[in-house]
Design a protein that fits this description.
Number of helices: 9
Distance between the termini: 43 Å
Largest sheet: 7 strands, mixed
CATH superfamily of the largest domain: Alpha/Beta hydrolase fold, catalytic domain
Radius of gyration: 24 Å
CATH topology of the largest domain: Rossmann fold
Shape: globular
CATH class of the largest domain: Alpha Beta
Number of strands: 23
Structural class: alpha+beta
Strand content: 25-35%
Strand order of the largest sheet: 1-3-2-4-5-6-7
Helix content: 10-25%
CATH architecture of the largest domain: 3-Layer(aba) Sandwich
């Protein structure tokens, strides 16, 4: 950890590497000046992400050391750790102006995770673009994160609320809200942006494994953010590397991949414009979700269909020492779960109790839990042929349909399928819930949801039925959309 003091030239700059470990929003720090200041090298401003602070760049991280050793001037800004891109963008814009005048030249921003979004907000919406040459974002969820959708879903919302996972930042990172943000931002983006993203979420038992597993149906990810979300139509992708969400901010991991873009003489060549908005959105189904609160003990049941290659049970909890026992249809029992704290940032303060089984028996499974008092989320992940045979489609009219592949022998029997759709509508801090039963998927091609006004609609679709092999199955699909003041679905 760096324990140096900066020169007190600027009254708003703090003691570098000292003070409150959580950071003070609005504080910024200047790193030690390099032995020789190359005028061609731009000062770097580092921006932290969700549930983080400026200390993330030098505590257990060599990013600051690496930048200094390579002759770059540096600054580090503390924003609100759970603030949305609007409040953080406004605060950051003021700090960027100060830092620009302090160094006397244009800056390059390096933002980790949500820090890249806050940076773009500062430039596009709060007038900071004259002070910045370019933005380099490290695994920033520019299109939102499905983990934020999960945190605001009907099943996970209780746990997220208890542990503080429901906050302005997570709310704004729902994929539906980020579609709205992109509509407001992309047409006005003029500062070149460069992106890096990761594809490593570790092996079973690692801290980001479950996040990567949950996101796997949406494509490659680093355990918290997908590669697809890390890029924009007008950004330049510098590298997709074998990093997880924590490693990508390490200097020894990524500095060399973006260092060529830290010079004033770097030529930028990018096309700016509005991202395309699709009228229909598709989601695959590979998980089953349940959650709630209990005191003493509880149990949950779920079904496993035929030909499931792998089954992962994740019990996400606000308790570290929960007692768990899993029972298969034939009476086998498991009670040794791997426990890890959450590092996705979306459920910070919670614990993952996980177990993976190969080739599980089909039928009804049961998991029992015991604790004095517990808030929990059960997420069952299936590696199964059924996953690709079940999809969700959502169109501009807010009509939901669940098409299935009829040609596969492992697909669902549509005559047996039923669904419960839970819609959580958020507007101006108020939540409205709607629950719709859909018991005739075979006879009704789609269900139309009511538009309740402008805002975020978080949708939880619970499916159950039988496969063509007459085996029970269950799945949960979670997504979100934003409806603007004209009634248009931004998705």
């Amino acid at each position: 950890m760096i324990m140096t003091l900066i020169s007190p030239i600027h009254v708003n700059a703090g003691k570098f590497g000292q003070g409150d470990s959580s950071g003070t929003p609005g504080q910024w720090y200047e790193g030690l000046p390099p032995s020789y200041v190359d005028p061609s090298k731009s000062p770097i401003v580092f921006i932290h992400g969700l549930n983080s602070s400026s200390h993330t760049w030098w505590q257990e991280n060599d990013m600051y050391d690496t930048a200094l050793e390579n002759g770059f001037e540096t600054a580090f800004v503390d924003l609100y750790p759970t603030g949305d891109m609007w409040n953080n963008g406004k605060l950051l814009a003021d700090k960027l102006e100060e830092i620009y005048h302090h160094f006397g030249e244009k800056l390059v921003i390096v933002g980790h995770s949500k820090g890249g979004i806050d940076a773009q907000s500062a430039l596009v919406h709060y007038g900071a673009s004259p002070y910045v040459d370019r933005i380099i974002s490290l695994s920033s969820p520019h299109k939102g994160s499905e983990l934020a959708d999960l945190a605001y879903s009907s099943w996970a919302g209780w746990l997220a609320d208890i542990i503080g996972g429901k906050n302005d930042a997570t709310y704004s990172l729902q994929t539906g809200y980020m579609d709205y943000y992109r509509q407001q931002t992309d047409p006005h983006a003029s500062t070149p942006m460069y992106t890096l993203s990761g594809t490593n979420w570790g092996s079973f038992g690692s801290s980001l494994y479950w996040g990567g597993l949950y996101l796997s149906s949406y494509g490659a990810s680093d355990g918290a953010v997908t590669v697809a979300s890390s890029n924009l139509p007008y950004s330049t992708e510098l590298q997709v590397g074998d990093w997880n969400h924590s490693e990508i901010r390490q200097g020894s991991s990524t500095f060399g991949h973006f260092s060529d873009y830290l010079y004033e003489t770097t030529e930028d060549s990018q096309a700016f414009g509005t991202a395309d908005t699709v009228s229909t959105n598709h989601h695959l189904s590979d998980s089953f979700i349940r959650g709630g609160h209990y005191s003493g003990s509880t149990q949950e049941t779920f079904y496993v269909e035929e030909n499931v290659d792998k089954l992962t049970i994740n019990w996400l909890s606000d308790q570290k020492n929960t007692t768990l026992e899993l029972a298969s249809p034939d009476g086998q029992r498991w009670n040794k779960f791997t426990s890890k704290t959450d590092e996705t940032s979306f459920f910070e303060g919670s614990y993952h109790h996980s177990l993976t089984l190969d080739n599980p028996n089909s039928g009804k499974w049961q998991i029992k839990a015991g604790s004095i008092s517990e808030n929990y989320l059960l997420a069952v992940q299936y590696e199964s042929l059924l996953n690709t045979a079940l999809t969700l489609e959502l169109d501009q009219g807010l009509n939901i349909s669940i098409p299935t592949l009829n040609h596969t022998p492992y697909g669902p029997d549509r005559k047996t399928m039923k669904s419960t759709i839970t819609m959580e509508y958020y507007n101006n801090g108020k939540q409205t819930s709607r629950k719709i039963k859909w018991d005739d998927l075979d006879g009704t091609p789609s269900r139309k949801l009511s538009k309740l006004g402008e805002g975020v609609y978080n949708l939880t679709i619970d499916l159950n039925g039988k496969t063509k092999q007459n085996k029970d199955f269950n799945r949960t699909i979670i997504t979100s959309v934003y409806i603007d003041n004209n009634g248009k679905v931004l998705k």
